[in-house]
Amino acid sequence: MKVLFALALSLLLSACASTYVPPTPSLNLPAKTKIGVLVVAGDNVNHSHIGTTIFNNFNTSYPYQWRMSDSIFDTLKAQLERPERFEVVDLSKWNRMPLQPLNFVEVRDKNWQFTMEQDLLRKRLLAEGIQVVISVFETPSLAYLECGNYGCNEYYSQGYGLFTRSFLGMDNYFSSAAFAVSVETIHQPVDLTLMPKLVELSNYQSKHKMLDDFEDPKDFQNITASEMEPVRQSILDYFTSVGEQIKAYLNGEVSGTAS
User: Among the four residues 52, 126, 156, 257, which has the most C-beta atoms within 10 Å?
Assistant: First the structure.
C-alpha cells in the first residue's frame, strides 16, 4: 500500500511539474493604469467544522454584517493605489459585467493566448482603459490535509469564515479565505496567477491561517460576531498580502518569469 501511495504521489507531482508556463516578461505598467477588480462573495460567514468522526461534522452560516465583497475590494484598492500608483475600478458596479468567474488568458501552443469565449468582454474593458483584471470569487476550498500510510484525507471549507478541526477534544482554529483569485493582463495576454509568488498565495495553507490565539467561543455552534472578529481581520490580512504581491508584479519589482 505504501508503494502504491508513493507511486500515485509521484505521478501527481510529476504532472504538476510538467505544467508548462510560457516565458513571461517583467511588467512595469505606467502610473494611473486602470485595474478592474471584481469581488463576488456571499453575505453569510461560514463555520466549517471537521470533528473526530463524521457525525461531529457541521457547517454553519452566520448573517454578520461583514460586507466582505466591499471589504476585500477596499483592501486591494488600498494596496494597488498606494502611493498614487494605479487606478482601481470596481467592476461589480459596471452594468455590463457578468458576475461569474473570468478567464481572459490561457496557455495554447506553449504561448500566452487570449481566450475566444470572453474576447468581446475583454475588448469592452480595454475600451474603458482597463488593462488588468483581478477577479475574486468565493468557492469551497481545500482547508486541511491529513496524510498517513493509507493515503490522504482532504477537508474543505464551504466558504469564507472559520474552519475548525477537532480531534479527541483538541480544537484547531483557522481563518478561511475560501476564494479563487485570478489576475490577468488584458492588453497583452499574461495570467499572473501562475507566477510563483501568487501560486504560493493560492496554496491552501496560505489561504487558511491557523489562529493560535483564537479564544474558545462560549458556544461552539453559535459563535458571536465579536468572537469571530479575529477571523475577519485575518482574511483581510491575506488580501493585503495578495494586493502587495500583485502590485510588485505590475511594478516590475518581481520577475515575471514563472520558472
Answer: 156
Phi-psi sector, 49: left (phi>0), alpha (psi -120 to 50), beta: beta
Note the pLDDT of residue 149: 85
The pLDDT, as a whole number, for residue 204 is 96
Q: How far apart are CA 103 and CA 119, in angstroms?
A: 10
Q: For cell 474593458, name the residue.
A: 125
**Taking a C-beta distance cutoff of 8 angstroms, is the pair 34, 87 a contact?**
yes
Q: What is the pLDDT of residue 257?
A: 60
For residues 78-95, b (16+ Cβ closer than 10 Å) or e, as one string? ebbbeeebbebbbbeeee
What is the distance between the alpha carbons of residues 61 and 218, in angstroms, rounded to a whole number?
17
Per the listing, cell 481581520 goes with 233
pLDDT tens across 132-165, in order? 999 999 999 999 999 988 899 999 999 999 999 9
Separation of alpha carbons 233 and 237, rounded Å: 6
Q: Which segments of the chain have a pLDDT < 50?
A: 1-18, 259
What is the C-alpha separation between 107 and 114, in angstroms, rounded?
9
Concatenated DSSP letters of 75-86: HHHHHHHTTT--
* φ, ψ dihedrals at 85, nearest 5°: -105, -85
